[in-house]
Design goal:
This protein has 159 residues and is an alpha/beta fold. The chain has six helices and four strands; from the N terminus they run E-H-E-H-H-E-H-E-H-H. The longest helix has 24 residues.
């Protein structure tokens, strides 16, 4: 039986929110002493930033919160991602149609918004546009903690 949980975070350009989520969840899983039980990556719905590293203000906010910054290059979601990952977690409703177009409607059951795991489901606004990197960090951290708790609860319930 394969107990690996495969998580793919998705945002528009894959330089702010989704790599922040990837790095936050990677650190939370490490702190929970379960790094070998997760595969965590991130990608974009668009092609605009392909090959680019994490956006410097996003990197700085991670460093301020002592989240290790991993090597990262932006990439675009592929149809194969829907087969390879258990969870396709996006940041805002706006991403749904782009994800569906790439992976197909039949695979959308694996897709959900990050903050849908919390008590306060909502979109995470793009800090590239808002400049609110601290707010985005806080919301992404909240979502990643709630996601990890959901995974652990499902494991104990045998789901």
């Amino acid at each position: 039986m394969n107990n690996m949980t495969r998580v793919l975070f998705i945002c528009h350009g894959n330089i702010c929110r989704s790599p922040m989520a990837q790095m936050i969840l990677t650190e939370l899983v490490r702190q929970d002493k379960r790094p070998d039980q997760f595969e965590i990556d991130s990608c974009a719905t668009s092609r605009e930033e392909i090959g680019n590293p994490i956006y410097p203000p996003a990197k700085r906010v991670l460093e301020r919160h002592s989240i290790p910054v991993l090597h990262h290059r932006a990439r675009q979601i592929t149809r194969k991602d829907a087969e390879d990952y258990d969870y396709l977690i996006y940041m805002e409703r706006y991403h749904e149609s782009d994800i569906r177009r790439v992976i197909g409607a039949e695979k959308m059951g694996k897709a959900c918004r990050l903050l849908d795991f919390t008590q306060n489901p909502r979109d995470i606004e793009d800090p590239w546009y808002t400049g609110e990197f601290e707010k985005a960090f806080s919301e992404i951290y909240e979502g990643c903690r709630a996601f990890l708790e959901t995974v652990k609860k499902n494991e104990t319930e045998g789901k």
